[in-house]
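Morning run. Coffee first, then this:
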Amino acid sequence: MYAVRDEKNEKEFCNFGFRRGSVPGGTEAGDWAGRKTILLADDEPIVLEVSSEILHVLGYNVLTAERGDDALSIYRSHNDMIDLVILDMVMPGMTTCEVVNAMQDIRPDVKILIVSGRKIDDSTRDMMKKGYDGFIQKPFSIPLLSSTVREVLNNA
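And here it is:
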């Protein structure tokens, strides 16, 4: 593993040595992955960084935000090109419910995948009924992330 600097954004990210579109364990994105864009929002910088890199390696275009209000701002500007939004269940700036409601006001068919360290309980199930398309519990494996993203996108 080594650090690479992205000159455009001046951010460092980890390169796990995988070739684009394939990761260990045979998890591969479909040929269409490179044409799909994901907005990823998580307030934990390491989770955001690693998840973004994994999705990139799987072949997706990735936009990132560390706060709920930043995710909404990005979505407002780029909703026509965003195929999936992955949101942490608890973020600063705006609640996840507020972010999702605002995104659904902009585009009712937005695909939302919730990620959380919380276990699925009654409150999580209630949130899922509000228009979310999936849930992944942290920590998650690369194959689980890959298959869940594919499943949500295929149900478009």
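The beta strands are 2-6, 11-15, 22-23, 27-28, 37-41, 61-65, 84-88, 112-116, 134-137. Good start to the day.
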